[in-house]
């Protein structure tokens, strides 16, 4: 039996600060709330720290569901063929019930990004689809912002060696931990205060975009000439937001983005990825897409393309956009020069778009809209929601108003206003 790794290179003081930020800034956890947490078993030190601070903040019950790379791989290498169309729907139904009962949601990201890289892509795509279908009750509560939720990260040995190739294991883990702490702003004296300042800056960008009321965004860069129509009555979001249960939280730690909902039928042109996408253990490289009337009609990738296309075929909405997000090239994660192979970090280094489900919060009075009303305004519906990065220091973005007036939004990867 393989022993759990111990990472003495992870600064315990900063780890404790990350746990505090997760509870107080990420979740805004309130006394009397319960917490449902998911985590790789290798993240046990952070799970314990978060659990301690959750109870100190007044949590009634903390429940953690663990994942493990070895047991995941055991399924793909030993399970019968029919097993890959099966998922634990009972578990996700229980999660949905918990969210309906005001339970907060926290995910710790830290799996090996290449965990499934050598497994049968047909099995991987079938398992992904089965999980997406089963997960629908829970993900609907998250995308509708029914409860306060948050994602943070903890280093994994194989992840660290991918980000810092050629370094000894201990040194790579230490460097990845430090990079996570820096991006999460817990290397500062008062991280909670730093997050309050950062949220104010993001909110200023959000408010400017909302005041412009653009009808479209036009992205241009090498390999990209894309016009993204914005949903009717869309609202820009970013940084801390209030969930339907009245609690203000920061869903992503770290975050550098402002984002909104594209119009599912008004996306046209070509777009090229600027970073690889790591999706559920598969690395997908050099994605290129052509959109026509909202649908990705041509999709290519030099690596992982078979899995990528099968994921997009999960349902009719899988080849349409559910999110567009703006991130300056000068963001701290971008300037670190690191490719994290982890969407939580890489999406905050570059402008990005997401295939699949939209966020209902990204509409004016979105919490009052029905699914049919969101659809009528151009919001996309899907079992998937997958961000991939398209921004760079060469990207220009123009906002196009309903009368055709163009306003510079980004020039050479930076805010123009």
Total beta strand runs: 20
Classify the secondary structure makeup into a structural class: alpha+beta
Tell me what portion of residues adopts beta-strand conformation.
15-25%
Number of helices: 12
What's the alpha carbon Rg, rounded to whole Å? 20 Å
Largest sheet: 8 strands, antiparallel
Cα distance, first to last residue? 57 Å
Instruction: Report the helical percentage.
Output: 25-40%
Backbone shape: globular
Can you give the mean pLDDT?
95
How do the strands of the widest beta sheet line up side by side? 14-13-10-6-5-18-19-20
Low-confidence sequence ranges: none
Task: Describe this protein's structure.
This protein has helices spanning 12-27, 44-56, 69-78, 89-100, 121-143, 157-163, 169-183, 191-212, 305-312, 332-335, 343-346, 371-376; strands spanning 35-40, 62-67, 104-109, 149-153, 216-221, 224-230, 241-242, 248-249, 258-260, 262-272, 277-279, 282-284, 288-292, 295-300, 321-326, 352-356, 385-389, 396-400, 406-411, 414-415. With 417 residues, the protein is of the alpha+beta class. Strand 19 and strand 20 (414-415) form a beta hairpin. The longest helix has 23 residues, at 121-143. The radius of gyration is 20 Å and the shape is globular. The N and C termini lie far apart (57 Å).
């Amino acid at each position: 039996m393989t022993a759990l790794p111990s990472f003495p290179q992870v600064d315990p003081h900063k780890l404790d600060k990350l746990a505090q930020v997760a509870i107080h800034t990420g979740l805004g956890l309130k006394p009397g709330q319960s917490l449902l947490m998911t985590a790789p078993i290798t993240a046990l030190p952070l799970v314990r720290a978060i659990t301690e601070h959750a109870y100190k903040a007044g949590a009634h019950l903390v429940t953690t569901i663990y994942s493990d790379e070895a047991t995941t791989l055991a399924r793909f290498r030993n399970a019968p063929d029919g097993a890959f169309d099966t998922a634990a729907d009972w578990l996700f139904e229980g999660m949905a019930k918990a969210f309906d009962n005001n339970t907060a949601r926290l995910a710790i990201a830290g799996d090996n990004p290449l965990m499934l890289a050598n497994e049968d892509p047909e099995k991987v795509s079938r398992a992904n689809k089965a999980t997406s279908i089963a997960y629908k009750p829970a993900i609907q509560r998250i995308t509708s912002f029914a409860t306060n939720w948050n994602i943070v990260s903890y280093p994994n040995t194989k992840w660290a060696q991918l980000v810092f190739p050629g370094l000894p294991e201990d040194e790579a883990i230490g460097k990845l931990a430090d990079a996570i702490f820096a991006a999460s702003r817990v290397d500062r004296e008062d991280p909670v205060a730093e997050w309050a300042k950062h949220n104010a800056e993001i909110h200023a960008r959000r408010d400017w975009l909302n005041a412009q009321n653009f009808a479209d965004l036009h992205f241009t860069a090498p390999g990209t000439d894309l016009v993204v129509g914005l949903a009717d009555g869309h609202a820009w979001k970013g940084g801390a937001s209030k969930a339907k249960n009245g609690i203000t939280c920061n869903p992503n730690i770290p975050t550098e983005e402002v984002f909104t909902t594209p119009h599912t039928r008004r996306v046209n042109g070509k777009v090229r990825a600027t970073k690889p996408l790591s999706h559920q253990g598969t690395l997908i490289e050099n994605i290129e897409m052509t959109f026509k009337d909202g649908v990705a009609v041509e999709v290519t990738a030099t690596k992982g393309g078979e899995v990528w296309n099968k994921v997009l075929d999960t349902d009719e909405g899988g080849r349409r956009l559910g999110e567009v997000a703006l991130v300056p090239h000068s963001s701290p994660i971008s300037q670190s020069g690191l490719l994290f192979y982890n969407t939580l970090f890489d999406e905050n280094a570059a402008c990005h778009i997401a295939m699949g489900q939209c966020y209902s919060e990204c509409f004016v009075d979105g919490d009052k809209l029905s699914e049919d009303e969101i659809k009528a305004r151009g919001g996309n519906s899907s079992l998937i929601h997958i961000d991939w990065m398209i921004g760079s220091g060469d990207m220009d973005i123009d906002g196009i108003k309903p009368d055709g007036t163009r306003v510079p939004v980004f020039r050479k990867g930076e805010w123009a206003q």
